Every structure is written in C-alpha cells, then in structure tokens.
Hints:
Oligomer: single chain
Number of strands: 11
Shape: elongated
Strand order of the largest sheet: 3-4-5-2-1-8-9
Bound molecules: adenosine-5'-triphosphate, magnesium ion
Structural class: alpha+beta
CATH superfamily of the largest domain: Beta Polymerase, domain 2
CATH topology of the largest domain: Beta Polymerase, domain 2
Number of helices: 23
Number of domains: 2
Amino acid sequence: MIKKLIGRVLSGKIFQARGARHARPIPFKTHGVARDQISTCALSVTDTLQAKGFAAFVVGGAVRDLLLKREPKDFDVATNATPEDVRALFRRSRIIGRRFQIVHVMCGRETVEVSTFRAGHDSEDARDGNDNGRSDEHGRILRDNVFGNQQQDAARRDLTINALFYDPATQDIHDYYGGVADLRGKRLRMIGDPAQRYREDPVRMLRVVRFAAALDFEIDPPTRKPILELADLLSHVPPARLFDEMLKLLLSGHAVETVKRLRKEGLHHGLLPLLDVILEQPLGERFVMLALRNTDTRIRGEKGVSPAFLFATLLWHEVLAAWKATEAGGLPAIPALFKAMDQVMQMQAEKLAIPRRYGSDMKDIWAMQPRFEQRAGRRPYRLLDLPRFRAGYDFLLLRCESGELDAEIGAWWTRFQDAPAAERERMLVPDSAPKKRRRRRRPRAGGDTAERSPENAADGV
Ligand code: ATP
Ligand code: MG
C-alpha cells in the first residue's frame, strides 16, 4: 500500500486529479479583485491562519461573485489547518458538520465558514476501487471527509468557476481548472467526468441549473447532457438536503428564470416533486408564477420573504382542488377547507419534505382566505387583528391578481385597513343573513380541526 502510494507520488498521479493544470497564479492586474473587497471577518481569518504558517484562501462562491462584479452572499475560507487548529485560533468559533467537519468563525454579525482542504472521491483509494463503504449502490458519496492538498480540494469542487482560490495577502487567484476563462465565456463546466460527479452527488445537477439561471450562463454540452438521464438519482438524496437546495433555488432572487431554464433544459419533469407542483399545474400556473415573481422582487429589494408564504402559494391550487372535491362529498365549506388543507399537507409532507415548522403558518394563511369574503358585522375587524393578517392579505392580493378572485375584494381590503373608523363602518357590507341565536355546543373530545366552525377557526388563526 505504502509502496504503491510512493510510486503514485513519484509518477505525479495523485497531483493530477481530474486533469488539473498546474495553477500559475493569476495576478491582481489581470483579474482586478482587490484585497479590500474581501470582508473584514474573512480577512482576519486568512491573515491569522497565514501568520501561523498555514495556507489560507478565500474560495468558492465569493471569488466567483467578485470576479462577476456581484456582491458575495458570504465568504468561505479553505485552509490546510485542521478543524481543531482553526478552532484553537479563534475564540468565537465552533466546529460543526455532519458529512464533514467545518469551523464557523464569528466576528460581529458575520460568520465565515472555514474548511480544511479535502480530497474528493477521486483520491487514490477510490481510483483503486477501494471505496471502503464511502458510497451507496448508486455511486452517491456518503462520507468524504478525507483531508487533502489544495489541488485535491479544487478537484472535489463542482464547477470550474467555483474552484477558484483567492489569496488576500498576494491578491493572486489560483485556478486549476480554467475557471476564470469559463467565467469570461459565461460557461458552466463540471470538473472531471460530469456523469460520475452527478452520481457521487446528484444535488450537483440542481446546482448547475440554479447557477445557469442566476448567472445567465450556458451549460457546457458534456455537463448538460447527463442531467436528463440521471435526474432520477435525486430520489436517493435525503429529503432534508433536497429541501435545502430547493429553498436556495426558490429564494435565489431568480426563481422565475430558474423555472424557465428548467423548462428549456427539459428538466421540468420528475426532477423534484416540488418542481412538478410548480411546473405542472395548468390551473395554478399563473398564480405560482406571480408568487415567484413577487418573491424575486422582494429578495432583490432586500425585503424578507417567508418560506411558509411561498409554500402556501405553491400548494394553493392543490388545496383548492381538494377543497372542491371534499365539498362535493357533502361537507360544508369551512370544514371541507380544513379537511382539504390537512390532506394536502399530509401528502406533501412525505413527498416534498416541507418541514413541520412551516405547516402551521401555511395553514393559517389558507384558513384566512374564505374570511376575506365576509365583509359584514365585526368579522373584518377580527380578521384585521390576527397576527398573520398581513401574510393572508398579501396572499389574497395574489389571488386577485391571478384572476382567481374578483379584484374588487382585494381593493376593498386595501382601503379598509387604512380607513378611519367612521369610513370603515360605512364600508361594511350590510349583513343580509338572518341573525341566528348562538347555541352553546358541548365541547367535543378530540378537537378535530375539520369539525371546527369558521368562528372557532378564526380564533385559532
Ligand atoms: P452560493 O452563492 O449559492 O452560496 P456557492 O458556490 O458559494 O454559491 P455553497 O453551497 O456556499 O455555494 O458552497 C461553497 C463551495 O463549495 C462551492 O463554491 C463549491 O466549490 C463547493 N460545493 C458546494 N456544494 C458542492 C457540491 N455538491 N459538490 C461539490 N462542490 C460543492
Ligand atoms: Mg456560498
């Protein structure tokens, strides 16, 4: 084993992983990214590590974004120091990680993610077919926390444009895979054999599509081609990880382009159940696209968006369909709605892995909807007082805009919210229904939501 390893080192095999060239550093005068464009926290991390004799670079998305003259979301650092070394150097830091250990270093409100150079799956063991149980039967990598050198760390990254290393001390960029040229050519190229890289981690297929849309880049044909054939592999990825990636995609500020790109790439069937929901509903399409556009605008305007609101929009037409079916089965409107909501949530919890914590907000938004149509008596006031009124109202406006609901209802609520008290009273629609005497019902055991009356439902929201 050792002999073999020495032989490989001598023949230079280990250091030529995935066709890397020797990276001649690209100087500042060629690329133009200056040290002062790096965040204070990332600079303090690389400076401290380098002062202790370690190698340390800003890597990944931040270098890519700076070269594209975009503002990086966050800064990641790669180093040859181990997680324990890093932890020992920074007081406000902690080691985290399941698949592999990384260190979060905190300065003020900023967090920098520091990872130790790692060898990917293509390291010598894997090339000898000695997998040691590191991947599943589809080739998906389960463990890849093997430390490596800088070049191996470049090789295990996904796209050439994401494998650039920036040294803030010298302002040089180390580029093993032609990432800078690909950035200039607006090209997405997977490092190594794309099919093999997708098998190792199918989430890379979603990343490729997300970057293509967000950056408006072309996908290099060999990188693009295997995606359709291998899309099924996404079903083996743990739902929580898929959900995270989906959230990144929907909250990227480019959700509309991404959805269009998925269609163009022919990836809108079977890639992800949530995408099927978005892309394959003839009835809800207008509504869903409006919701995505609205989310994009908010994100680009740096306004917050709530994932629960977004998921409520994506599934609304499913709720409407289930509601109609349940009502046709003989249930009164409101209990039918509650039953439909439960059905949709249950189905989607399994399929889409929407975390439970979003469930109650989503239901609140849906449950409010019929109440916007009741504009008599004290009811509008009670609705206005609900903590989530604003989300429900925004949702209502989308329904109006999509043509599902009469625009007049939305306009009424817009006026009602801000009108002075006397004006509000004038706006109320006369209550035509004969007043019923309220009978006190004995409380039921079990408290099934489907049995709740609209008034009770209101109080629960
Ligand atoms: P974003 O702007 O969305 O943060 P990013 O490229 O920084 O984009 P991260 O998820 O923050 O994405 O990952 C940081 C870096 O880690 C990437 O640039 C890439 O080099 C590497 N990376 C992330 N996910 C993968 C993956 N699935 N396979 C290989 N390398 C990956
Ligand atoms: Mg990042």
